[in-house]
Amino acid sequence: MEAQVLFDTLKGKFGDAVVELQGEGCSPAFVVVAPASVQEIARFLRDDPALSFDSLMCLSGVDYKEKFAVAYHLHSMKHRHAIGMKAFLPRETPSLPTVDDVWPAANFHEREAFDLFGIVFEGSKDLRRILLPEDWEGHPLRKDYKYPDFYHGIKV
Amino acid sequence: MSPDPAHGQPPGPGPPPAAPLAHGSAPSPGLGPEAHVMVGNADLFVNWSRKSSLWYLLFATACCGIELMQAGASRYDMDRFGAVFRATPRQSDLMLVAGTITHKMADRVKRLYDQMPEPKYVISMGSCANTGGPFYKDSYCVVKGVDLLIPVDVYIPGCPPRPEALIDGIMSLQKIIMRKKNFGAKA
Lengths: 156, 187
Ligand code: SF4
Description:
The complex is a heterodimer.
Chain A: H1 3-14, E1 18-22, E2 30-33, H2 38-47, E3 55-63, E4 67-75, E5 82-90, E6 95-97, H3 106-117, E7 120-122, E8 150-151, E9 154-155
Parallel strand pairs in A: 2-5, 6-7
Antiparallel strand pairs in A: 1-2, 3-4, 4-5, 8-9
Chain B: H1 5-8, H2 33-40, H3 42-51, E1 56-60, H4 64-72, E2 85-86, E3 94-98, H5 103-115, E4 121-125, H6 126-131, E5 154-156, H7 163-178
Parallel strand pairs in B: 1-2, 1-3, 3-4, 4-5
Helix pairs in contact in B: 3-7, 4-7
The complex binds iron/sulfur cluster.
């Protein structure tokens, strides 16, 4: 399915929650959505027979200095098409609803984004650090992260 | 053995200590010559048996581990040196740290080392274990050298070191073991 057609479908269904289509000509182009509606849009993308994005390939956090983003890469095994979805978040309170009940694979990815960027996924089944030790302070992939001097008495 | 101060002393001018069953200084009074030979060469015997069965803890945390597997497999065949891998620290004499050690892993490294029975040795294999290697600058998660955690006997440079280098490291450790004094006055 063409990205523009998909965007129009989403726009028709969700109105203002779907902001714009970016990166046309890129593969895949991505739809910018409002963070609060991520979960409903995700469910629609998975369940609609013409779309059936049954696979969440990747979910990543992005730091744009003045704001954060969460990027979803979706793929449909049935129709063999792909699309990106992106939600921009304010730097002070980076939080949005989880999609781990839509695609269970999202859980590990969300934990990674939480661990390294401090993005909070509301309603997540299990939001813990995944890579760093439980008692680590801060979120190291943030651009303003300051390295600690010591960790458990060992110089960092 | 009866305590005899002469036994702990390194043999003076005479046959080198490396020759097994060589007669050192004069036999002590009251003991037969065989008893003296036994004490004088006990270090040699113990060290020789230790260096010839260096069972190493299989502790591969990153890409250097692949090279370690290669060194243990049939082409390079570290078994020739009596070095075979063990899957538990309780049966190991040597910890071969092959790979990157992160701060999350650091506690586990220390715990595994503490579980090994004495005498124990550590070989740090590859740049990561030596100094942090490619992660030396600008890494929040990698420990800059395993010697910040546990004492290291031999460092092997390389990223990764070839199996020949690893075998050379094991042979260097064997030389270190052969110099050790276990009985009498510590040298
Ligand atoms: S020294 Fe090089 S090969 Fe060895 S673990 Fe580090 S990066 Fe990998």
